[in-house]
Every structure is written in structure tokens, then in C-alpha cells.
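re: ur question from yesterday

yeah so i grabbed the chain u mentioned. its 201 aa long if i counted rite. heres the sequnce exactly as i have it in my notes:
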Amino acid sequence: MSVIQTMPGHLIRRLNQISVSIFQARIAELGLDLTPVQFAALASLRDNPGIDQATLAGLIAHDRVTMGGVIDRLQAKGLVLRMVNSKDRRARQVSLTLEGRALIDRLLPEIDAIQTDILCGLNPEEQVQFTALATKAMLAANERSRAPMRPRDEAPHDQDKAIRRSRLSDARNRWSWLTTTSAPSKLVSATSSASVASRSR
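ran it thru and got these C-alpha cells back, copy pasting raw so excuse formatting
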């Protein structure tokens, strides 16, 4: 067995590949054209009607640019409506059309049913344990993601602040490691010299 077979990151990537493959197969069986991200967007809009694009992006952990493209494609399929927020013209509110609502109501039980196929190697008790542990691990590392998941009650500007805090914390941690461990002394010296030189300019 290769060493990567014991690495959580590799195993998570493989499970994601399996999950997407099973999802796509079921969607094809239903005669539909929908991606996992589009499904997640529709499901979130069902539970949070009329939210703006930035909030939707936070709910399903996608960056705003990607979410804009997702909404474009869903709108082209006649599944969502997008309109200017009357209170903030910079924001775009998104809601399901009647067709979109009917589709997600039809799909939710179908996609819920294939979750056991994704975890077919686990018994029901193990599936519950796996889901709990996966949720715990995901939430603990949420801020290290390029697009962290954000609850609905966290405003977009708060999301930006949280991202900046996370990046600043990572930078501080890297600097702390560099100066307190056995990292090559030349690298520390070079970094310090560059800092002194920049201050003297």
C-alpha cells in the first residue's frame, strides 16, 4: 500500500471523486443536467429564499465569482430569478422560480437516498459516526479554506474581515515557526536583512 493511501487528504479527494460520480450517474438517470454545486445552490435557496449572491456563496462555501457563474447558468435554465436589492443596489437577490422549486423538491429525496451509496462500505452506525467526524473536521478547518462557509447572519463585510484575520493568523504562525524552530538560519538571516534594508529606504 502506498503511503498516500493512509493520508486523510488523499482519502477525502477519492471520496469526493466517488461522490461526484454517483451524483452525476443519478442525475443522468433522471434525465437532468445539473452539477453538485448547482444542486447545493438550489437547496440553499429553497431554505433561504431571497438571499443575495454573497450570502449564498458563503452558505455553500464558494467564492463570489464562481457563484456568479453558477447563478448565470441556473437563470439560463429558468430555475432562479435574480434582481437588484431595493435596499442596496450593489447586491443581487436570488430566488427560485416555480420550476426551480419543483425541481429541488423532486431532487432532495433522490440525492438523500444516494448518500448511503457513497458510504456503502460503512454500516448505518458507522455512517452516522463518519458524518459527525467529517463535520467536526470541516468546521475546525473552515477558515483555512479559500472560500470558507459562512452562516446567513454573517454580513458580507464581516466575511471579508474574517478572511483577512485568517490570512493574517496564518502569516503570523508561519513567521513564528520560522524563527523558533530549526529552519535554515540563512533564511532567517536573509529575511531579517531584507526587513532592515526596506526600513532604511
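noticed a couple things. Residues 155-159, 177-200 have pLDDT under 50 and may be disordered. also Strands lie at 80-84, 92-96.
anyway ttyl
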